[in-house]
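Worked example 2:
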Amino acid sequence: VASRGMKALAPKTAPEARAKELQNDLGLKYLDFTVCCTDGKIYIRGAFPVLHEGTVLDRYQIEIEWSDSDIEVPLLRETGGRIPWIADRHMSRGGMACLFVPEEWLLRPREEKTVIHYLDGPVRNYFLWQSLYDRGESPPWKDRAHFAPGLLEAYGEMVGMEGESAVRCCL
C-alpha cells in the first residue's frame, strides 16, 4: 500500500518467469546461452562470442548471476579458466570479473540496464580487452585503475571533474 505520496512498487516477477523472459530476449542474438533459476537466483551460462570488426575474435565460457535490481549489478564469472585471477587482468578470486565500478551500471537509465545492453556493452568490451591483451595487442581504450584510484577515476568521469582532490571533496 502506498502512503505519504509514495507510489506502490510494481509486483516483482517470479524468478522462474523472469528467467524465461531473459531466455527469450537472448534467443535472437545469443543462441549459445541458457538461462536457469536456482535458489531464487537467475543464472545465464554459455559461450560468449567476442565480436570485433564484424568477426567473432574469440569465445569465453561465462556465467552471469543476473539482477534486475536497482541496487545490485549483474555478476560475471569467466568459467573456462582462461583468465588469471589477478587484479591486472581485472579478475578477483573465484573468477569474478571486474567490468566497471558498480555505480557506472547502477546510474544508467533503466532502459539501458537490459541483458542485451550488458552483453553488448561492458561484457563485450571486457572480453575484447582480454582477447587483445592475450594477443599482445593494445585495446583501443585505457583500462581503469584498480581499487580506490579506479573509483576516483570513475566518480570523476560521472560528475565531470578531474583530479583526486576535486573528486574527494564531493564524497
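DSSP finds five helices and six strands in the chain. Strands lie at 34-38, 41-52, 55-66, 75-78, 91-92, 96-97.
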